Amino acid sequence: MEQRHIYRKMLIPFAGTAAFIGSLYWLCMSPYSQLQGDFPYSGDSGEKLVAITFDDGPNEPYTSQIAGILADYDIKATFFQPGACVEHYPEVSQALFNAGHVIGSHAYSHQFGKYLSLQSIHREIKQADDVFARHLGILPALYRPPWLLRTPGSLAAIRSHSLQPVSGEFCHSLEVFQPDPSRIARGAVSKAKPGAFILFHDGFDAKGGNRSSTVEAVRITIERLGNAGYGFTTVDKLLGISPYRPLPS
Ligand SMILES: [Zn+2]
């Protein structure tokens, strides 16, 4: 009896903490929660169309390998790139843009501490804009916050730059550990429905990393979705907006 009482005393705070962390995750990082404002993880499509998206690149040689696969199948995708990665591989971003892929902003540094204050979020957005304008001569209209992190007021801060915040559905919860490509692909295929934004990572938190499983998973995913009658498009088209903002004259 005494023992059970002790367990209960230990478990109740633990359950409370877990519920609190779960709520915080739902509010601030879930791909699906709309509690802090409109944050689309899919667009309107009456047809079987999905948008394949990539975060955290360019990261070579993986980004170029993915671009090669997309070219093989004549598919356009959407790449959310941190400004710091674009500075590192400007020619890779340029090649993606020239091939007709859509470049979205993924802030500048991808360092967690930079997305906790609104002031710092504004700074990160402007820094990224400078990089896109300088190296590619464009200003993306789509913005995916690193880790999909939302804090009170952050979506409004993003919109104040005329940027459209974009969520997405993770291809596989363990993609970061690069499991077998067929496992990642199975997860990605399971997320497909008309209008879905399927999220892969061609890098890791803007720090590079081996992404060979993701590369192969992309090929398998495209094959399987194609066989299931899916076509591929870009996020801007599914949202019915322009992919780029006008450059200041
Ligand atoms: Zn990211």
Structure description:
This protein has 249 residues and is an alpha/beta fold. It folds into 2 domains: 1-30; 49-245, Alpha-Beta Barrel (TIM Barrel). Helix content is 44%, strand content 13%. It is built from 9 helices and 10 strands. The protein has helices spanning 2-28, 62-72, 83-88, 90-98, 118-136, 154-159, 181-191, 212-227, 235-239, and strands at residues 49-55, 78-81, 102-105, 139-140, 142-143, 164-165, 169-170, 197-201, 231-233, 244-245. Strands 1, 2, 3, 7, 8 and 9 form a 6-stranded parallel sheet that branches. Strand 7 (169-170), helix 7 and strand 8 form a beta-alpha-beta unit. Helix 2 (62-72) runs parallel beside helix 8 (212-227). The longest helix has 27 residues, at 2-28. The protein is globular, with a radius of gyration of 19 Å. The N and C termini lie far apart (76 Å). The model has no long low-confidence stretch (mean pLDDT 94). The site of zinc ion has 5 residues, from loops.
Number of H/I helices: 9
Which CATH C-level class of the largest domain is it?
Answer: Alpha Beta
N-to-C span: 76 Å
| Ligand inventory | zinc ion
Helical content, roughly? Answer: 40-55%
The proportion of strand residues reads 5-15%
CATH topology of the largest domain: TIM Barrel
SS elements, strand count: 10
Largest sheet: number of strands, sense, barrel closure: 6 strands, parallel
Low-confidence stretches: none
Secondary-structure element order, as H and E? HEHEHHEHEEHEEHEHEHE
Find the structural class using helix and strand composition.
alpha/beta
Mean pLDDT over the residues: 94
What is the number of domains? 2
Shape: globular
The CATH superfamily of the largest domain is known as Glycoside hydrolase/deacetylase
Q: At CATH's second level, what is the architecture of the largest domain?
A: Alpha-Beta Barrel
